[in-house]
Amino acid sequence: MGHPTTTPVAPAPRATFATLAKFLPRRAKLAQRLPDTARTLGISLASMAVFLLVWQLSASYLYGVEAEARIERTTQEQGGDAGAEMAACIASGNVSCKPNTLPFPSEVVRAAGLLLADHRAIRAKKAEFQAETEAVNAARSAQGLSAITYTGRPSFVDQIGTSLKTVVVGFLISLLIAVPLGVVIGLNNNLRIAFNWMIQVFKPVSPVVWLLLVFMIVKTLTLGSDTDTSFLISSISVGLCAMWATLVNTSVGVSSVNKDYINVARVLNLGIGKKIFKVILPSAIPMIFTGMRITVSVAWMVLIAIELLAQSPGLGSFVWEEFQNGGSDSNAKILVAMFVIGLVGFLLDRLMFYVQRRVSFETVVA
């Protein structure tokens, strides 16, 4: 007689929900936070409405000033009939005579839609190119040759991705330099004095100067190479510009660790490695993360100028190309980039804030 078979039973949905509920905020806490959240949301929405109203009125005023100046200049140079034609052309909304000034909010929204549509079109072209070259690339790969890649212009979304990669690599470079060096400086008062002049001299140096210095070095080290070094130059320049806040805060955090903790470590005969990782760094984490948050903000802020000069295909190049283009919607696209830059910078700061709150034992102020 065969043994009865048993069928595995899936966990009950209620048990699964109970497990997930542990990670969700409790109803009591949500009820306590609701009034403050509603108040914060209401104030934020009201301030946004005021901002949009001021923007709309400013754009209208500047549009009128530019239109009147253009009509007056045309009238003086070509006569009254030409001035009347210019006024009629501006009133019709023709892009050929449209005043080139601060765009309206609606124009910025329209430009954002055009950039997204352009991204979808470029993505479709890339997919089509990859499908056409798939067989050829497979044959080239079998022969040990490099694949044929798409060389068309990047979309706005692609350029955002390039800028984010540049900032991430630059941020990691700054951490690799600033945190170890800051710990060493913070542990030794003589080293702190020795490095102080260097920090004070190089900290205020312009990102353009750092870019030129990095360009000199990378150009020399990559002589004879055909690889594109713009991304490498941009990343290193961003890291060197942004590392100083982390370096200073790490040094100060390490040097200001409670002496009682150091004495306990000495009593326990902890080695230098254990003393640093078990005592000093945990105590200095709040200061270090404050410096890291500043470093991220500075890295994202200097990125545009660095990408512009290094010709890296990121947001800096996008802004400069639109400025040089001078098209009817170029100003609106530049403002789209401005809002994207601000929003991404805000999200990066929030990300660092939540990471800091997770790893720090002290209360973190937003």
TrEMBL record:
**The organism of origin for this protein:** Neolewinella aquimaris
Membrane association type: Multi-pass membrane protein
Every copy of the ABC transmembrane type-1 domain together lies at 160-352
Query: Predominant location of this chain?
Result: membrane
The record's GO CC annotations read: plasma membrane
| Coiled coil regions, renumbered to chain | none
Is the Ribosomal protein keyword given for this protein?
no
Q: Name one Pfam family in it.
A: BPD_transp_1
Q: Which Gene3D superfamilies match?
A: MetI-like
TM annotation in the entry: 37-57, 167-187, 231-258, 279-310, 330-348
**InterPro entries to which the protein is assigned, alphabetical:** MetI-like, MetI-like_sf
Q: What is this protein called?
A: Nitrate/nitrite transport system permease protein
**Can you say where in the cell this protein is located?**
Cell membrane
Q: Which UniProt keywords apply?
A: Cell membrane, Membrane, Transmembrane, Transmembrane helix, Transport
Record-stated family: Belongs to the binding-protein-dependent transport system permease family.
GO-annotated biological processes: transmembrane transport
